[in-house]
Amino acid sequence: MASLKLFIPAKVSALGNLKVSRLIYVFFLKEFINTIKIGDTNTSDNIVNNNEILVIPSVNPHSMNIGKRFWSGDDTDINRMFPGYDLGETTQRIADGVFKEIKDYNIGVQFSSFYNPGEFMPHIRIMKEGYSDVELAKNFDLPYVILRKVRPYDTTTLNYNWQVWETMAYSFYTTSTTRIDRKSAGMAVLSVMKFLSSQGIVDYKGSLLHQSKIVEDVDMLSVQTELKTALVNLTSIA
Fold this sequence. Notes:
alpha/beta, Aminopeptidase, seven-stranded mixed β-sheet, globular
């Protein structure tokens, strides 16, 4: 085991899109369910040691069906409403209902996305000051694990509140989120299965994907260009 904080039997929660445009995660979680063989035949062949995995493909299916990014009524972001309030506005009550179901899980994996569109290097993000274990994050076998400094607005996000309740929370970023990319989804399935296998939660054997490198967000630099297309000339220097 990579962490002494993990309890067996463990309860793992996998949560898909809080922002509706992330259709790739609904597709990915379908593939993930097929891989661990739960939900369709009432069997759990790959889940071992009396562990439990909860999968929530989408928190906001209504807005997803009509193609809106946030809650369709008032454009509020559910991921800025945690831990929720059962007597509050609609998105506060949605966050409250979701959080009551998942707050006691040992491990939480949220499939996240950037506010900017684009294609990205697959990686895991965790909050530097949080409860999550950076060494445990390496077991996803993704190229990078990024340590992110906690900011004031993070206090209303799912990831932050999970950790307040002593859930090891990991944000998973794939290559593409706005379109269904089978290659990216397949990589995500392998990565999550490798992680769960390393913790004795599922019975799965696969080869090493990547040796994860730890990077802190304060060491990263945003580079912008006014050109619509950037051309890079690669030459070898004697």
